[in-house]
Amino acid sequence: MSGKGDTSMASNAGRPKKPRVAVFKFASCDGCQLSLLDCEDELLSVASAIEIAYFPEASSDMREGPYDVSLVEGSITTPHDVERIQFVRQQSAVVVTIGACATAGGIQSLRNWGNHEEFLKCVYASPEYISSLATSTPISAHIPVDFELRGCPINRHQLLEVIIALAAGRKPRIPNHSVCLDCKIRGTVCVEVAQGIPCLGPVTHSGCGAICPDFNRGCYGCFGPVMQANCDGLVDHYQSVGHTSEVLLPLLRNFNAAAPQFAAVSDRLSSADARESEGSQHV
After folding, report:
1. Which run of H or E residues covers position 43?
2. What does the pLDDT look like over 163-184, one tens digit per residue?
3. How many CA atoms lie within 13 A of 113 on its CB side?
4. Which among 225, 217, 185, 184 has a CA at the least distance from the CA of 199?
5. Tell me: the pLDDT tens digits for 13-30?
6. What's the CA gap between 259 and 252, in Å, rounded?
């Protein structure tokens, strides 16, 4: 969750009284857009303060830009996506990326560690007609982004805070602590300490309310890495108490697999496995 640049939308002479908001979709499941629609009663209040100019998921009334704020869901996975996101940036005063796909490449970023051509051959009868990239990358890899809202899906209350804050011309107030603190607040017993279950709570951004540990399972990082996450230290600890890479790699390569902090430590684990395997073959 981070602010990048000036997100102020204070009214200027000649600008519309209501901020014009657009919602765009790239490679994703639409879950984050649905989180906005799930706001129901709150959305009615927000809608009175803004003009929803472009939102294909919700309305066929799609008005052209420019827009004061564009909410962008989804990752970049095709050459056409690359061109389209550049157009979105040109049309938008403020760009806010919403969800794990838009902020970290999403679950589809697992292709970044695979063989793109082999995937196409396995899925499509005529792969030569498919135009896609070998990687799934976040929006920030292609354009400047003003604010990132993480999660798979996003927290609808956090989304409302972002929209209201930008409409009011202030910086959104989104918590920056880890899931571990949420567990303490809820009084949830640490699943790693009490049960030996590997958990990404110490390095994952708050937003879900620490749901998984409350149901006796480890956090799997759906809100992405918290600021200054010590992923290497956490993984080293888990290995020291007997957890293998067969357990840790799937935990790290999940909805936020391509987030730099998660990707770096998962690559380290994968490389260590490869060296160990190569060494055993020479014995």
Report:
1. helix 41-47
2. 889 888 888 999 999 999 999 9
3. 18
4. 217
5. 455 578 999 999 999 999
6. 10
Half-sphere exposure of 179 (CA within 13 A, CB side): 28
pLDDT digits (tens, 9 = 90+) for 236-281: 999 999 999 999 999 999 999 999 999 999 999 999 877 776 666 6
Tell me the Cα Rg of the chain: 21
Find, among 225, 265, 228, 250, the residue nearest to 103 by Cα. 225
Longest Cα separation, the chain: 75
Give the side-chain half-sphere CA count within 13 A for 68.
Answer: 26
Q: Are 223 and 181 in contact (CB under 8 A)?
A: no
Rounded Cα–Cα distance for residues 107 and 253 (Å): 8
Buried b (16+ CB within 10 A) or exposed e, 31-57: bbbebbeebeebbeebeeebbbbbbee
Whether the pLDDT of residue 104 is over 50: the answer is yes
Give the whole-angstrom CA distance, residue 27 versus residue 107: 10
Q: What CATH number is given for 2-168 in this structure? A: 3.40.50.700
Cβ neighbour number for residue 197 with a 10 Å cutoff: 17
Q: Looking at the DSSP assignment, which residues form a beta bridge with residue 226?
A: none
Helix (H, G, I), strand (E, B) or coil at 98: strand
**What tens digit of pLDDT does each residue of 70-95 get?**
999 999 999 999 999 999 999 999 99
Of the chain, the end-to-end C-alpha distance in Å amounts to 47
For the chain, domain boundaries: 2-168, 179-273
